[in-house]
Design a protein that fits this description.
This is Acetyl-coenzyme A synthetase. By secondary structure, this protein is an alpha/beta fold. It contains 20 helices and 30 strands. The strands form eight sheets. Strands 12-11-8-6-7-14-15-23 form an eight-stranded mixed β-sheet, with helices on both faces. It has a seven-stranded mixed β-sheet with strand order 5-4-17-16-18-19-20, sandwiched between helices. It has a four-stranded antiparallel β-sheet with strand order 21-22-24-25. The chain binds ligand 6R9.
Length: about 675
């Protein structure tokens, strides 16, 4: 067992539950031990040494940890290949993800709670045990196999809220070796259709309605619109919120209510054991171009990484109740509402509501009622709640909380301090976790860390085991493009149907490293802080969005000649969207406010509500270099409200006068 002379490394649980032995006001770093690695390597005496070991001997490190999974047939080599050739982990190893997330816990602990489903209306939570979850997964796997004819490697699309049905269906896909592709249920019908078509999904799983913040959203209607242009979808399984009272329009025989399949025979439980490198899911995310990328995550590799990070970064122990409030439509929902916590046999939360429904005390009332030990959320929500005042937090008992986490976007110091001091009462550990859809799980985070090292506010500080960050190989640099030197099991294996694009996007800019797309700085203590994206991706309310996607949507308007979209700092959303639009001559004489409305509607229907620009500025031209390249640097500064003096050198512009006009129009925008 993990021990150290100073006793700081001994986890409270290993002190026979004597929590009082650990001084509460001292922020300790009693991260979970890693006995499988440390026992066989007695020279490892500190976390730094364990980290070094994970970098120098990744094969041994991950081989030992892989024993935390249940393999049907053992793997031989741990790691083959490199970033440029492609990486394979645990070759020949076969396993089933649903068995690892459900069956093995149902076997030993069937009455343990797997899922707490926190419905939109407060006080309406449901508990699902591992035993119950297993039955559901087996039933849904039978439905997918026998009714929807899904086979190993087939793609199943999801347009679902976070719910136990969604979780059981996702696990059912993994049970039969199918690949799931969840599309965030806030995306428009166009965005849904293009993702379904790219993945060539034959089955879609959806709900008739979802209720969020007391408002009903008719998902099936969006689906019906999308399915007009997805000829490959043969079966639509519909989860009816109000059972047989559903009023959703159904097209027979394609659309089937799940409750009508209740009697499906599920006695024949067929488990498909897959290769560790076989795809588990596709998840689309935004990049520099207009076309979202379908990142592919593989079965055993991804599962191991989410499991280990969930355990180590969040110091997660049996009996803890993990409250990740992210939607299942994003990678955070996949890794830390579903796969990490369930692989660890933990209790996980599914949150259907919003941070302000029915009032800004919702999160903390829920923490009190459910006695959550962990709360993992976004800086945007924290900034929003900060505005409502501390009384909404203080009203509720948060003494069950031990660890707080932040994810999705940079957290500013003010929000971090409020989260730490008000929500966490200064006694919880707050971790700012940096990672990406591509990295599969947390890659930089204050934990695991050296004993007694203080947590610096508002930065992810340290790499996780096995992650070696670098500034493009420049060991002396303390600022630059954030890259990772070596493979780790959580890294996506490809972009769906676009392996060349995968290589080009991530491995050709700073070879032989993985380029994250983010910039970072390293402070004098060697701690990492993210400075933001270095490409044309912006982060709005924690949602990753390509400016090119918004430009494509705006460009669909018949009166638009060209546009350029940039992000600007926004005090709640992190970044806001600023669109510069040049109209065709015909449009110049028309009512701008009408066109503006139409442009906003286009962004909503082509992408999602969060992609609607905060500002639209019409101008006769855009600042371009003589070779015709739009100078986004200048547009970003103008959006921020900077003056001519602050713009820097504009002499390389083809038409410097454009800038004067833009500055004038910007000053008139409220
Ligand atoms: C998990 C997730 C990834 C991008 C990433 C970065 C930004 C995420 C952050 C952060 C600063 C943090 N990001 N966490 N920036 N500090 N703690 O959000 O994945 O949706 O793919 O977004 O989000 O820019 O590159 P994803």
């Amino acid at each position: 067992m993990w021990r150290s002379a100073g006793c700081q490394l001994v986890c409270p649980r290993f002190l026979g539950g004597r929590r009082d032995l650990v001084k509460r006001h001292v922020r300790t770093f009693l991260s979970t031990p890693m006995p499988e690695v440390t026992q066989m390597n007695p020279n490892i005496k500190s976390y730094e040494e364990l980290y070094q070991f994970s970098i120098e001997k990744p094969e041994i490190f991950w081989r030992e940890l892989a024993n935390r999974l249940e393999w049907q047939s053992p793997f031989d080599s741990v790691l083959e290949g490199d970033f440029t050739q492609g990486v394979k982990w645990f070759t020949k190893g076969k396993l089933n993800v649903s068995v690892n997330c459900v069956d093995r816990h149902a076997r030993t602990n069937p009455n343990a709670v797997a899922i707490i489903f926190e419905k939109d209306e407060p006080n309406q939570h449901e508990l699902i045990t591992y035993g119950e979850l297993q039955k559901l997964v087996v039933k849904y796997a039978s439905i997918l196999r026998t009714v929807a004819n899904v086979k190993k490697g087939d793609r199943v699309a999801f347009y679902m809220p976070s719910s136990p049905t969604t979780i059981a269906m996702l696990l059912a896909c993994s049970r039969i070796g199918a690949i799931h592709s969840v599309v965030f249920a806030g995306f428009s019908s166009d965005a849904l259709a293009s993702r379904i078509n790219d993945a060539e999904a034959s089955v879609l799983i959806t709900a008739d309605v979802v209720v969020r913040g007391g408002r009903s959203l008719h998902l099936k209607k969006v689906v019906d619109e999308a399915l007009k242009s997805t000829p490959g979808v043969k079966t639509v399984l519909v989860d009816a919120r109000d059972g047989s009272n559903s009023t959703a329009a159904m097209q027979h025989p394609r659309d089937i209510f799940l409750h009508d399949l209740d009697k499906t025979d599920s006695t024949n439980d067929v488990i498909e054991y897959v290769d560790s490198n076989d795809p588990l899911f596709i998840l689309y995310t935004s990049g520099s171009t207009g076309k979202p990328k379908g990142l592919v995550h593989s079965s055993g590799n991804y599962l191991l990484y989410t499991m280990v990070t969930h355990n180590q970064v969040f110091d997660f122990h049996p009996g803890d109740k993990f409250g990740c409030v992210a939607d299942i439509g994003w990678i955070t929902g996949h890794s830390y509402s579903l796969y990490g916590p369930l692989a660890n046999g933990g209790t996980t939360l599914l949150f259907e509501s919003t941070p302000v429904y029915p009032n800004p005390g919702r999160y903390w009332e829920m923490v009190e009622r459910l006695k959550l030990t962990h709360f993992y959320g976004s800086p945007t929500a924290i900034r929003l709640l900060m505005k409502s005042g501390t009384e909404w937090v203080r009203k509720y008992d948060r003494s069950s909380l031990r660890i707080l986490g932040s994810v999705g976007e940079p957290i500013n110091r003010e929000a971090w301090t409020w989260f730490n001091d008000v929500v966490g009462e200064g006694r919880c550990t707050l971790v700012d976790t940096w990672w990406q859809t591509e990295t599969g799980g947390v890659a930089l985070s204050p934990r695991p860390s050296a004993p007694n090292a203080p947590i610096e506010p508002a930065m992810p500080m340290r790499p996780f085991f096995g992650i070696k960050p670098t500034f493009a190989g420049d060991a002396a640099a303390n600022e630059g493009p954030l890259c990772v030197e070596k493979p780790w099991p959580g890294l996506a294996s490809s972009i769906w149907k676009a392996s060349e694009r995968f290589k080009e996007t991530y491995f050709t800019q700073y070879p032989p490293y993985y380029f994250t797309g983010d910039g970072a700085v390293k402070d004098s203590n060697g701690y990492w802080k993210i400075t933001g994206r270095m490409d044309d991706v912006i982060n709005v309310t924690g949602h990753r969005l390509g400016t090119a996607e918004v430009e494509d949507a705006i460009g669909k308007h018949s009166l638009v000649s060209e546009s350029a979209v940039v992000g600007y700092p926004h005090d709640v959303k992190g970044e806001g969207i600023f669109a510069y639009v040049v109209l065709k001559d015909k449009g110049k004489k028309m009512d701008r406010s009408e066109i503006e409305k139409e442009l906003r509607a286009l962004c909503k229907t082509k992408i999602a509500s969060y992609a609607v620009p905060d500002f639209i500025l019409f101008n006769s031209g855009l600042p371009k270099t003589r070779s015709g390249k739009i100078m986004r640097r200048i547009l970003r500064k103008i959006a921020t409200g900077e003056t001519m003096k602050e713009l820097g050198d504009i002499s390389t512009l083809a038409e410097p006068a454009v800038v004067e006009k833009l500055l004038k129009s910007r000053a008139n925008l409220k």
